[in-house]
Amino acid sequence: VCTLGPATDDRESIRALIDAGMDVARMNFSHGSHEDHARRIGIVREEAAKVGRVVPILQDLQGPKIRLGEMKDGGVLIHKGQNLVLTSEPVEVGTAERVHVSYDALADEVVEGGRILIDDGNIELCVTGVRGGEVETQVVIGGILKTKKGVNLPQIRASRPSMTSKDIEDLAFGLDQDVEFVALSFVRSARDVDNLAQRIRAADKNVGIIAKVEKPEAVDNFDAVLASADGIMVARGDLGVEIPIQQVPIVQKRLISGCLEASKPVITATQMLESMMENPRPTRAEATDVANAVLDGTDAVMLSGETAAGKFPARAVEVMDEIVRMAEENRRRLGGRQSDAFHTGNASRTTRAISSLAVSLADQVEATAICCLTHSGSTAREIASHRPDVPILAFTDSQKTVGRMGLTWGAEPIKIPFQEHTDDGIRTIHREMIASGICSPGDAVVVTAGLPLVAVGKTNMVHVTTIGEDWV
């Protein structure tokens, strides 16, 4: 997943990301205008079509992020031990003595002795008192207060709604653009996800909801959040500020495991190749971080500033692609995800059994691929959660499903006409596999489908077929 921004704002640079391996394009609505995003979305779709691909769009809503106001000269230096006043009242320009914070209830919710973190925790303040609606603090860790930097209030359950008026306007724009996914920031409960889902349904759209886990409440309520969402983003930036940093790796593993059991995609995000903002090579620790996320079972890894504002955006994608491929090649040998995991997802008991059997059959008959005749893509996602050693090909008549497959591990969508009968669907698979060069005559493939084929969500058949025999 690659974030677009100033460093990837033109056709040439976006095409370079696609050629390097970008599977999903993220639009960060914390920055940029609707005009900027519309232009980038258009370029992504046009350039992807030129190479016969679909690159889905992930709209990432800003959410109720608390930020500093405008600072004098763009940033002012504060020192350990000095006093600093935070206020929600308008401030023309922030100084080293007084700054604006975009949260009206700040003075009501902080407590004396509480911590306030700024700029991903690089600056720390201690609350010394509240007076007249203003928060008085003492600097614990100094640094440069920069315009619009984020503010975190650890251990404080902020009362702001999950979607701001800006988010609602941005969502309407994204739905008009037919984005495939919407990421909801600062999720605290399943209710936040359900509220977004209601807005999407009211607009008569079918969009996948990715819940960003970056608040302690979301970690505590994870099972319910996961049940309501279509996927999860492990947003380690704010999460690493809101909870003790040493807990982040453990929480990451727990979230990924939960998504695998539920057969829902999970994105691991934030600072994965951060040093490539400035350097053409990542650190060894970053390479290991990416590989370990893959070995844990993540469906996707994400680049943020590396591709949005870094000096080497396309190279960052190439490097991440190389690391991911190496980790995948060695996954099973190193004890990565196996195909016999217990699943608790939304699929029916029959579909779960068929999916597990398809993976087992593919191993036993040395199949070239597993092919799903699917409308919604749910069977392909169920199969993907078993992490088979062969590609998953999702044959679907739904263009929306083609886009939604972009976040599913190991799945390649193939658009086909509506198939009324299962035999017709299998014949289509044979023709497409030979025409595309994916398989050769004589190769074995495993096919899953529903009988009757027109029944949505009713996968109940698994079939081993030999390409080219009696079906073409």
What is this structure, in a nutshell?
Helix content is about 35%, strand content about 20%. With about 475 residues, it is an alpha/beta fold.
Report the principal-axis shape.
Answer: elongated
In CATH, the topology of the largest domain is named TIM Barrel
Distance between the termini: 37 Å
Characterize the main sheet. 8 strands, parallel
Describe this structure in words.
There is one protein chain. The protein has three domains: 2-63 and 161-329, TIM Barrel (Alpha-Beta Barrel); 66-152, PK beta-barrel domain-like (M1 Pyruvate Kinase, Domain 3, Beta Barrel), CATH 2.40.33.10; 349-466, Pyruvate Kinase, Chain: A, domain 1, CATH 3.40.1380.20. The protein is 36% helix and 22% strand. The chain contains 16 helices and 22 strands. The chain has helices at 11-20, 34-50, 106-109, 165-176, 190-202, 216-220, 222-228, 236-242, 248-262, 284-296, 305-308, 313-329, 349-364, 378-384, 399-404, 422-436, and strands spanning 2-4, 25-28, 57-60, 66-67, 75-78, 83-87, 98-100, 115-118, 123-131, 134-141, 143-146, 150-152, 181-184, 208-213, 231-235, 266-269, 300-301, 369-373, 392-396, 411-415, 444-450, 459-466. Helix 5 links the parallel strand 13 and strand 14. The longest helix is centred in the N-terminal third of the chain and has 17 residues, at 34-50. It starts with a strand and ends in a 6-residue tail after the last strand.
